[in-house]
Write a structure and sequence with these properties.
The complex is a heterodimer of chains A (198) and B (139). By secondary structure, chain A is mostly helical. Helix content of chain A is 73%, strand content 0%. Chain B contains seven helices and no strands. Classes of the chains: A mainly alpha (198), B mainly alpha (139).
């Protein structure tokens, strides 16, 4: 998700077109993050809508200290967690949905295609993790939030987050190796060996 | 040096998730143990692959974007439309006027009601002559 600072500032100044453009550019990314966290397309769509309602309310207070993408990701996390708290009170947690058709918005040069293909396969495995483990893994390892930020968003201690992270990574690696016979890890290793970073 | 069993919980962690002591113990063990070194490298690669997921996007169901645009448009209209703000301002001014008028009337009423004092004592406007007939009645 790439967003120009000028566009954000225009939206902050009340430019209606800029705000709508901001939504157009970011809504897929917000929806994907929500889907990974709540594991259900309907709830993810509701979360996405609530995120933008909150963005409209809070955009004036955004001071560009972090990037807009980081800020939007935090808003999404908070809204998704609130939704999950309400949902678990209503009924039992469902099996997480896999983002059905993820696409890479950036052009895919050959060297990037391998890691994108692997990431798509990982998506399926991540979706099958238990909800608590999936959420910490998504926030920490996919979106790069700190363990303290994850703990804060999920209402957990930092220690509890680390325990869940350990279990999620261990399980994911085992399932990945079982599914691909270690080949996937080797693929990423080759990319790393060539010095390219995603 | 720590055993493989002891170092195992430290292998999936990223460097910044470990205390300096844990990081040193892991580094020392991994330097000497090829099996744990391979495990640590595999976790590191897994972390890199997971980070790539952040760039992938799923497509929401049709109509989601349009619904969001409609909803935020309504919310913004409700808050920032100049016509809405003008109407709210007028209504507020009207309410304030009514409230102030009622308070003043109540105050005036409270001052006058308890004592049925002669109007000449109630009304003391400097420079306004008191009618002679009223003055005589008061005396």
């Amino acid at each position: 998700m790439e967003v120009d600072r000028e566009l954000v500032e225009a939206a902050q100044a009340g430019d209606r077109w800029a705000l709508e453009e901001l939504v157009r550019r970011t809504h897929r990314s917000v929806y994907t993050c929500a889907l990974r966290l709540v594991g259900n397309p309907d709830d993810a769509a509701d979360v996405t809508q609530d995120v933008y309602l909150r963005v409209v309310r809070k955009l004036g207070g955004f001071r560009h200290e972090a990037s807009f993408a980081t800020w939007l990701n935090r808003v999404t996390t908070n809204v998704a967690m609130s939704t999950l708290k309400r949902r678990t009170r209503r009924f039992a947690v469902e099996v997480a949905a896999v983002p059905a058709d993820t696409r890479d918005p950036a052009p895919e040069p050959a060297e990037r295609a391998e890691s994108v293909a692997l990431a798509r396969r990982l998506e399926q495995l991540v979706a099958r993790l238990p909800e608590g483990q999936r959420q910490v893994l998504v926030l920490r390892d996919v979106y790069g939030q700190s363990t303290d930020e994850v703990a804060d968003a999920m209402g957990l201690t930092s220690g509890a987050v680390k325990v869940r992270l350990f279990r999620a990574r261990e399980r994911l690696k085992a399932e990945l190796e079982a599914a691909e016979g270690g080949q996937v890890v080797a693929l990423v290793g080759r990319r790393r060996a060539t010095g390219r970073r995603s | 040096m720590m055993s493989c069993h002891s170092v195992r919980p430290l292998l999936p962690a990223r460097a910044e998730e470990l205390t300096p002591l844990e990081a040193r113990m892991r580094a020392e063990h991994v330097a000497a143990c090829s099996r744990c070194a391979a495990e640590a490298a595999a976790y590191s690669r897994l972390g890199q692959a997971l980070a790539v997921m952040a760039h992938l996007e799923a497509e929401p169901a049709g109509g989601t974007l349009e619904r969001i645009l409609v909803v935020i448009g309504r919310r913004r209209t409700r808050v920032t439309d100049p016509r809405v703000l003008a109407a709210a301002g007028s209504a507020g001014a009207l309410v304030a006027t009514v409230v102030v008028a009622r308070v003043l009337r109540q105050r005036r009423h409270a001052q006058t009601a308890p004592t049925a004092a002669p109007w000449s004592r109630r009304l003391r406007l400097p420079g306004v002559p008191i009618p002679a007939a009223a003055l005589a009645r008061a005396k």
